[in-house]
Amino acid sequence: MTLAIFGNRVNTLGQGPLLPTMVLCQPDAAKSCGACCGLYNYADSSRPALVRRLRKRTKRFWETMAAGERPEAFAERILREEDFSKRYEVIYCCEYLGFLDREEKRVGCLLHPAVHGGEDLRGISFYGRELCAGHLCPSHQHLTEKQKRILIRVLDDWYLYGLCLTDIDLVKTYFQLLSDRVGEEVRPERMEEEGLRATVQAFFSWKVSWPFRSEETGRLGKYFFDGSEYMIARIDYERLGRRTSPFHPLFLSFTSEFRSGEELDQGEAMIRANLDRFTRFYLEKKPLALERPCPY
Ligand code: SF4
Ligand code: SF4
Fold it and tell me: What is the C-alpha to C-alpha distance for residues 190 and 98, in angstroms, rounded to an integer?
């Protein structure tokens, strides 16, 4: 199984009409994504662990460059010093991923030409220049332009941004549920309204703070690794004494592990309350034209 959404790079440029219009990797100064460079594939991919790793690595990188050494010398040190235990063995964790700004708001490639006055150093990396420059993850094709704009508008934190935007099931299922309730594809411009923005933010924050989250190292969203192969995680509804939940894809994306039917009921109630809240805010100010379509 290819886990392209988590890290494996494939060259997607040159695919003509499939090319998306909006690139999600570095959308603005407040956040960025490094998922396909293996950011979330460390055995400990918690936020504090990644911050420590990227901070130290970035410092080391610039010290190496300031000393006039080759970037390969930096890589040798990092590969020797850091713990590269992985969640999924087949996904490479690139040692050249670091912070791009002093404020540590943006993760990104320390070999990128934008960082070196136009000189592209990515040729020395594991994937090489062509794959690094040519890859766009499946989210670019599977998410609608409106969904992309909403994610960029509401998520201002690199850790959460990368986790959410690469979870296509999570994003598409959530927005489909919302669209079904409000009667149109959710409009990005409505995210200027505090109530709506906060509700969407609260939903996506469950990607890291979901109370029924499994702590198994091999789990990430709906996938888990049993030591030999990747599988889609399951929720044993029969054991819980419940029917398959209408929010099943969301539960998998939140890496859920319910210990009882009551916990499952609580999870459903949380999601339903979020959807209801959004719907109430959204319809309060829905333009008249949409509520009463012209009969002609
Ligand atoms: S948005 Fe996609 S292509 Fe860009 S860095 Fe993230 S995972 Fe990679
Ligand atoms: S060289 Fe840069 S773009 Fe390529 S995988 Fe490493 S960090 Fe990502």
Answer: 34
